[in-house]
Amino acid sequence: MTIKSEGAVKNAAVNRYGWATLFMSLAFIAIQSCIFKIKYAEGSVWRELGKQETVKKDREIQPDRGNIYADDDRLLATSEPLYGVYVDFMADGIEADTLMKYATPLSQALAKKFPDRTAAQYKRIILDGWDLSRKELAEIKRNEKNKSNKKVTVRSRYVRIIRPDISYIELKELQTFPFFNQRSNKSGLFTEEKTMRLKPFGRLAGRTVGSIFKDYNDGGASGLELKYDSILKGIPGVKTRQRVQGRWIDVILKEPTGGMDIKTTLNVDVQDLAEKALYNKLAETKAESGVAIVMEVATGEIKAITNLDRVSEGIYAEGNPNAFSYMSEPGSTFKTVSLMVALEDGIVTPGEEVYVGNGLFEYKGRTIKDHDWRKGQDKGSVTIARGMYSSLNVVIAKMILKGYENNPRKYVQHIHDLGLTKKIEWDVPLKGKEGTSAIRLPDDKGNPWSKTTLPWMSFGYETQVPPIYMLMFYNGIANNGKMIKPFITKSFIKDGKVEKEFETEVINPMLCSEKTLNQVKEILRGVVTDGTGKAVNSEYFPIAGKTGTAMIAARGGYEGYYVSFCGYFPSDNPEYTCFVGIRRPQGIPSGGLMPGAVFKQIAEGIYKKNMVSATVKPIKDTVNSLIPVLKGGSLKNTEIVLKGIKQSASFTGDKSDWVKQSSYADAISLEGTTTVKKGLIPDVTGMGARDAVYLLENAGLRVILAGAGKVKQQSIPGGSALIKGAAIKIELN
Questions:
Q1: Minimal CA–CA distance to 294: which of 312, 271, 272?
Q2: 633-732 carries CATH number 3.40.50.880
Q3: CB–CB of 260/485 below 8 Å?
Q4: Does the structure show a pLDDT above 60 at 2?
C-alpha cells in the first residue's frame, strides 16, 4: 500500500478548492448575466407582463353630467345612478344550507318591495339559479377529469334577480334583506351600475330640454342636451385596476371633473300652461302639429316653448323644433311688417282709404282675394287701419304697390334692415335652413322674382319666416321698438357659482320712429277689439296682436292651412309676447278662434298666476271658511305652499310623499296616498295635472289629458296592477 506524501495530499486539496471556486465563479457570472439580461435586455417585456397580471391600465372614470334647471331652480333634467341586481351562484362563500334556509323569507321580502313578481316566482328564480350552478360546476369538473377542452357556457354567475334597475336607496334596503345581508362572497349579490337621465317633470319641454343617447356615455342626442353636450358632460378621469393581496382595487390617477349645470329661462308653470292649452286645441281641431312660445318682453327670456306633433289619433307629443322648423309662409301676421315699412316711409297714413270693392283685385294675371270675397259684398273704400283690423289682403297689397311697385328693392331692403333676416345662433341644434328667414331681394338670381311677387309678399306669401322670428319682431313692437333676441339658456353654473351668464342681445335698437311705433301699436290693439282677433280679447287686461291664416305650399300647390296669432299683453304695459301656430287644423281655419284661443288661455293663465303669487291669499271656499282648497300632490310642495301662506295642517294616517286634502271645514287635514307603490297604478284623483302626469309617466304609462283643474277620474283605477306602456286617460274639471 502506497502512502501519499503530505505534499501530494496538499496539492489535491488545492486542486479541488480551485475547481470549486471556478465553478462558483462561473455560476455567479451566469447569474449576473441572467440578472442583467432580465433587468435591462428583457426588462421592459417582463415589466409589461407583470403589469398585465397585476394592473389593468387607464380606465375612464365617467364624470357626473350637469343638471338642467328651470328659472326658479326646479330640475328639468338630472342624472341618477341605477343598479341592475344579479346573483353569482358560483360565489365561493355561498353555503347551500344557508341559502335553503333563507330562500323563502328572502323571496317574501323581494315580492313586498318589488311586486312585479310573486314570492313564489322569486323563490323559483333563486332555486333554479342554484341548481344550474351545481350542474355547470359538475360539467366543468368532468371536463377537467377527462382533460377535455370543451367550453362550458356558465349562466349561473349572472342571474338577474329584479327586473327593473333600482335606485341607490333601494339597493341599500335590499342589502338588509335575509341572506343578502351577508358579505357579497357569501350571498353572491352583485350589481351593475349605470347612469340614467331623469326628468322630474316628465315630458314637459321635452323637445327643448332634449334627450341623451341610450348609451349614457354617448352624450346628448337632441335639444339643450345636444347643444351644450360639451358643457354638461364634464371631463373624464383615469383609474387603474390593481391586484393587491389577491383583490382588485381601483387606483385613481386623475379625478373626473363634473359637468356644469345649465340654468334656463323656462318657467315650469308657464310651460305647463302653454303645453296643456296647445294640446287641447290640437286635439279639438285634429290638427297636424302646433307651436306656442312665450317670451318676456324686456329681457328676451323664453318662459315657455312647446312643439307638439301628432303621433296617433288624438295623441300629441314633443317632436320637431316647430318654433324654428316651420319654414313656411307666415300669412297675415307678416302684414304688420308691411304696415310698419309703409308708415315709416310715409307711403300711407292709418286713416288713408283704399278701394277694396268686393275683395278681388286682379294684378298682372293673378287675382288677390280677401277672406270674405265669396260674399260678393262691395265694401267700397276702407282705411289702412280698418284693412289691418279685418286682415284684408287687397288693402295691404295696394298699399305696398303704391309705394314700391317701381322700386321693390327698397321695400325688401327695409325688411332686411329691420333685422328679420339676420342670421342668429339659437339655443337648440338645428339642421339646414331651420331657424332662418328667407326674404329674397328682386335681383336674387338663385330664386328670381315673378311679376306678382311684391304684392303677394306684402301679405305673407313668397317668404319663409319661422315662428321665432315673428315672435322677435312683435316683441320689438311691445318693447318700444327695441328688437332683442329670444333666448333659453340663462347661465352655466359650476358648484353653485355662475361661470358664464348670457345677457340680452339687441338685434335692432329701434325698429322705426316713435310716431310709426305708436300707430302700429294702436292698430294691433284694434285688431283685437274690433277685428279678426275679437275672440282673443280679455276682460282682465288689454291684448294687442295680429291673426294669420296662410295656405301651405305642397307638391306644386297648396294643401291645408297654417293659422297663427302673435301679440303681447297687457298691451298698455307689455310684459309678455306670445306666438301660437297650428298647422293643418280641420274645420274652417281661423287665426282668432284657433291659435287665438290658445293665446288667450295662456295669457289669462299667466295673469292669474301672477295675481295669486302677488297676493298669496287663501281662496275662500265656503261662506263660513277661509281655509284654502288644495290639490293633491307632492307633500314637499304642499308644505312649501302652506308655509308661504302661513297655514297650518294636520296629517291623518301614515305619512307619505304624496298626499290629498281629506277635509277643510275648519282646518286643513292631509292624508297620505297609499297607492303610489311600485307595480301599482297610482291614484291621482284630486291632484293637479302636473303631479298626476309626473306620477303616471314615471310609472311607465302613456297619459292622455282632458280638461283642466283637478283630476276627477282616471280610466284605470288607482291600485290596479301596472302594465308599463299602457295608455291611461285622466279627466280634469
A1: 271
A2: no
A3: no
A4: no
Strands (E), 325-478: 353-355, 360-363, 366-369, 381-383
With 0-12 CB in 10 A as exposed, 13-18 as middle and 19+ as buried, what is 557?
exposed
Global pTM?
0.72
Q: Are 522 and 336 in contact (CB under 8 A)?
A: no
Phi and psi at residue 227, to the nearest 5°: -55, -45
Alpha carbon distance, N-terminus to C-terminus of the chain: 133
Residue 666 has pLDDT above 60, yes or no: no
pLDDT at position 714 over 90: no
Q: Cα–Cα distance between 113 and 359 in angstroms, integer?
A: 72
**pLDDT tens readout for residues 367-394:** 999 988 888 788 899 999 999 999 999 9
| Three-state secondary structure call for residue 34 | helix
Classify residue 176 by burial, with Cβ atoms within 10 Å: 0-12, 13-18, 19+: exposed
Longest CA pairwise span in the chain (Å) = 162
What are the residue ranges spanned by the domains of the chain? Answer: 6-41, 60-263, 268-613, 633-732
> Looking at the predicted structure, is the pLDDT value of residue 612 above 70?
no
Chain centroid, CA 626 distance in Å:
39
Cell of residue 341, nine digits: 315699412
Which is nearest to 671 in space by CA: 629, 625, 635? 635
Query: In sequence order, which residues have a C-beta less than 8 Å from that of residue 579 and are 6 or more positions away?
Result: 291, 292, 293, 323, 467, 468, 470, 471, 474, 564, 565, 566
- How is 688-721 classified by DSSP, letter by letter? BHHHHHHHHHHTTPEEEEESSSBEEEESS-TTSB
* CA nearest to 231, candidates 51, 493, 448: 493
| 60-263 matches 268-613 in fold | no
Mind listing the pLDDT tens digit for each residue in 163-211? 988 888 888 899 999 999 998 888 999 888 888 888 888 888 888 999 9
Q: Is-contact 37 43, C-beta < 8 A?
A: no
Give 268-613's CATH code, choosing from 2.40.10.10, 1.10.150.120, 3.40.50.2300, 3.40.710.10.
Answer: 3.40.710.10
Length of the chain: 733
C-alpha cell belonging to residue 374: 265669396
